[in-house]
User: Which sequence fits this backbone?
């Protein structure tokens, strides 16, 4: 079993950004969506910095993300967990899972359509031996989600060939260890939820409830993300902050009245 960091409470949500850039409109919407759910439930809301990929990390972005959350009135409970401090826990989790080493390149897997274990030769990457695929789950907002068969059955990576832990491994380890009851996040992670439930089932009787929020898209239909060069949010004055919150609330399906930032936050959790 994964050692728990905190005791279980009726509701514990989290926002878990990776420090690959500053907070933008899409990530504020995800943060606000999970914050609203936690505060409405009178539960806890934690922040975890997912800094397990140093090559993609942007210097200074951790501080910017936290400052932006505070500027928007999104205060968190308990200490921030940094995934870069959690190496021992991830290695322990790996020791509890059935896995095998792999040398397959992306190109080889693409040519085969899927990773095929019988054609795999040992290498430096570590794959989960996926013997109990999860083909569907109930999403809090979107109902029954079916996961594509090929994806559900894939022996996905736990550790990359460069020695870094994968997102799937770290997020499952920390969601379980922190006793997260509700994962509210952007729908870009919708189908990866099957892998995460799969890993959880291998080591625990607990798993959170998942709810995936709509993504903000740009005029080309692309997800608003740091990779697509989304603009960092301006949080240097109160009117900018108020407008950011209004935009995020509208994206979440609310019709916010003309209120100050703090009044808007109170309004969201009482309506
Ligand atoms: Zn392989």
Assistant:
């Amino acid at each position: 079993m994964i050692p728990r960091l905190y005791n279980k409470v009726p509701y514990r949500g989290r926002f878990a950004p990776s420090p690959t850039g500053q907070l933008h409109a899409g990530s504020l919407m995800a943060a606000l969506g999970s914050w609203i759910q936690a505060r409405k439930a009178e539960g806890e809301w934690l922040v975890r910095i997912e800094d397990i990929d140093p090559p993609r990390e942007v210097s200074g972005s951790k501080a910017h993300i936290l400052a932006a959350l505070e500027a928007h009135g999104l205060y968190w409970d308990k200490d921030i967990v940094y995934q870069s401090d959690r190496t021992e826990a991830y290695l322990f989790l790996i020791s509890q899972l059935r896995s095998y080493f792999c040398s397959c390149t992306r190109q080889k897997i693409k040519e085969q359509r899927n990773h095929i274990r019988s054609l795999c030769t040992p290498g430096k990457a570590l794959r989960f031996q996926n013997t109990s695929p999860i083909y569907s789950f109930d999403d809090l907002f979107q109902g029954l989600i079916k996961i594509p068969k090929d994806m559900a059955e894939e022996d996905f990576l736990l550790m990359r060939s460069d020695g870094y832990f994968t997102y799937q491994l770290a997020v499952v380890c920390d969601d379980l260890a922190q006793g997260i009851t509700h994962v509210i996040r952007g729908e870009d992670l919708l189908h990866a939820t099957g892998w995460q439930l799969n890993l959880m089932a291998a080591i625990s009787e607990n798993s959170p409830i998942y709810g995936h929020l709509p993504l903000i898209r740009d005029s080309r239909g692309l997800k608003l993300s740091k990779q697509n060069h989304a603009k960092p949010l301006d949080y240097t004055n109160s009117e900018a902050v108020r407008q950011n919150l209004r935009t995020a609330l509208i994206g979440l399906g609310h019709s916010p009245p003309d209120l100050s930032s703090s009044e808007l936050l109170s309004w969201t959790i009482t309506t």
The radius of gyration is 19 Å. The chain has a mean pLDDT of 92. The chain has nine helices and ten strands.
